């Protein structure tokens, strides 16, 4: 670290670090791809909303199967281990360590594969996946912050607030007010 000032980045053995003015320890800077990733997070995302509300002519409410994605089924790459990892993330698992143990892999193996295919680290892929789900749930449900954190796999309301502030610059409830339109709540059946 010697010779570097706060806020400066430095390189050490293929890893980039920066010095924080708030913290004296080194902070890892995420890699940036110098190529166009083959896949996006949106291609693998599965909506938690499964049925759309429909009213009959007599006013009776019914539900019809619905999927908001232009592609009916989430994308399968044909790379078995990657597709299984995406399913693992979709189930709401917090990290890849247990997945790697199940297959006898190092976390760096999965991280490299995900980075090559999507341009994301495993952590940023999982966070982006959870944010897509959170955005939909904020708009179409009236779930509490505690329930939103549980349903999205984010964990705690503190984590929910931090992710929302990082992604959108506002608290989750403020985000809900900004994106929710009249009649959105109850329009879709949640799982």
List keywords for this structure.
191 residues; alpha+beta; Arc Repressor Mutant, subunit A; three-stranded antiparallel β-sheet; 7 helices; 40% helix
Task: Report on the architecture of this protein.
The chain has 191 residues and is an alpha+beta fold. It has helices at 80-90, 97-103, 107-118, 122-140, 145-152, 157-168, 172-179, and strands spanning 9-12, 15-19, 26-28, 49-55, 61-65, 188-190. It has a three-stranded antiparallel sheet with strand order 1-2-3, with no helix packed on it. A three-stranded antiparallel sheet has the order 5-4-6. The longest helix has 19 residues, at 122-140. Mean pLDDT is 76; it is low at 4-28.
- The number of E-state strands comes to 6
Q: Which of globular, elongated, flat, extended, rod-shaped describes the shape?
A: globular
Q: Beta-strand percentage?
A: 5-15%
What count of domains describes the coordinates? Answer: 2
Trace the largest sheet across and list its strands.
1-2-3
CATH class of the largest domain, anyone?
Mainly Alpha
What's the oligomerization state? single chain
The CATH topology of the largest domain turns out to be: Arc Repressor Mutant, subunit A
Name of the CATH superfamily of the largest domain:
Homeodomain-like
Put simply, the count of helices is 7
Work out the radius of gyration. Answer: 20 Å
Average pLDDT rating: 76
Distance between the termini: 50 Å
């Amino acid at each position: 670290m010697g010779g570097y000032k706060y806020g400066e980045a430095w390189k050490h053995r293929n890893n980039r670090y920066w010095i924080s003015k708030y913290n004296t320890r080194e902070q890892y800077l995420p890699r940036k791809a110098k190529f166009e990733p083959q896949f996006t997070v949106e291609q693998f995302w599965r909506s938690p909303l499964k049925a759309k509300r429909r009213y009959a002519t007599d006013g009776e409410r019914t539900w019809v199967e619905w999927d908001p994605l232009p592609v009916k089924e989430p994308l399968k790459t044909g790379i078995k281990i990657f597709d299984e990892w995406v399913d693992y993330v979709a189930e709401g698992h917090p990290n890849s360590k247990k997945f790697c143990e199940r297959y006898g892999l190092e976390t760096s193996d999965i991280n490299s594969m995900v980075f090559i295919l999507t341009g994301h680290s495993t952590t940023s892929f999982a966070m982006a996946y959870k944010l897509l789900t959170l955005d939909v749930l904020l708009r179409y449900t009236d779930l509490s912050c505690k329930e939103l954190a549980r349903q999205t796999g984010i964990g705690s309301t503190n984590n929910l607030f931090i992710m929302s502030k990082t992604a959108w610059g506002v608290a989750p409830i403020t985000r809900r007010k900004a994106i929710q339109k009249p009649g959105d709540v109850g329009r879709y059946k949640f799982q």
